[in-house]
Amino acid sequence: RSSDLNAEKNIVIRPLHSSILGEKFSFEVITPEGSRCFGCTSVEERDRWIENLRRTVQPNKDNCERVENTLSSWIYEAKDFFPKRKYFCELYLDGTLYARTTSKFSQGTIFW
User: Fold this and answer.
1) Which of 41, 43, 96, 99 is an S-S bond match for 17, by CB 3.0 to 4.6 Å?
2) What is the DSSP string of 30-63?
């Protein structure tokens, strides 16, 4: 299925953390019709695809203002874990899963 990216207004093109699909160097294209994920062979190839697709969607993007946001999250303490169970962390922003840690067995203190 092909999509005319020039005709779309509400398109999000974003890199995906490897924990989401289980593959390195992937990205997602979200349109009003749905989302599609794509994999690349390197981070450079993925970044090139993202940049080229973003320029297709917004050719004048270098002349527009934009906001860059960064989020760092640390969990300093977690209590009352049950022993011998697997635990993992998921990061959701606005209801969308952005990252997931590997699961680990509780053996006292858990670090990722």
Assistant:
1) 99
2) EETTEEEEEE-SSHHHHHHHHHHHHHHH-TTGGG
pLDDT digit string, tens, across residues 28-76? 999 988 999 999 999 999 999 999 999 888 887 777 776 767 767 776 6
Q: What backbone torsions phi and psi does residue 75 show, to the nearest 5 degrees?
A: -105, 115
Contact 78, 56 (CB under 8 A): no
Per-residue b/e over 85-102, b at no fewer than 16 CB within 10 Å? eeeebeeeeeeeebbbbe
- Decide if 104 contacts 78 (C-beta within 8 A): no
DSSP class of residue 19 equals H
**Which H helix or E strand runs over 20?**
helix 18-21
